Amino acid sequence: MTDFLTDDRPATTDGRFEGYASVFNVVDNGNDLVVPGAFRRSLQDRGARGIKLLWQHDPREPVGVIEEAFEDHYGLFVRARLLTNIRRAEEAHGLVRSGALDGLSIGFHTQKADRRVDGSRILREVDLWEVSLVTFPMNDKARILSLKGEERPTSGGPSAAQAGLLAAMHHLSKLMTQER
Prior knowledge:
Layout: E1 16-23, E2 32-34, H1 40-46, E3 52-55, E4 58-71, E5 75-82, H2 87-98, E6 103-115, E7 121-134, E8 144-147, E9 150-151, H3 160-179
Parallel strand pairs: 2-7, 3-7
Antiparallel strand pairs: 1-5, 1-8, 3-4, 4-5, 6-7, 8-9
Keywords: Hydrolase, Protease, Viral release from host cell
GO molecular function, one term: peptidase activity
Protein name: HK97 family phage prohead protease
């Protein structure tokens, strides 16, 4: 049985991070390619809070909560919070903070997909049920961009500041749509 609770020490930080759990139009190490719009229905139906935050895809190891998730032009952006009063989340926080771990990965059921001539699979719609902090993400570009405001170097993707701007634009767009 997993021992989730640590002692009564207060968490040293709030454990918030943001990054891309999936990047569009990249053939990953599992030979899958996710296209824009693949998460739309799942996000509408489930919402960010309905997506679990796990350690290394282990359903016995929840480590936090997804506070926000949306698609932008680059991929599936997430803002999440590690629950640092949980032992595994505290360990994960230390690994992320030190730069030893920065990978993100998704767990899903395929709803609609096509095969390309090269054998890769185009994921057109997926039922997203979890995001995991991982050592080796299937999509090499799926990474944590920042932890509690500490920007991480990126390789070819948006910086944390750019991702923050995209998130603000997403919020404005939602507000404008609601007012109509």
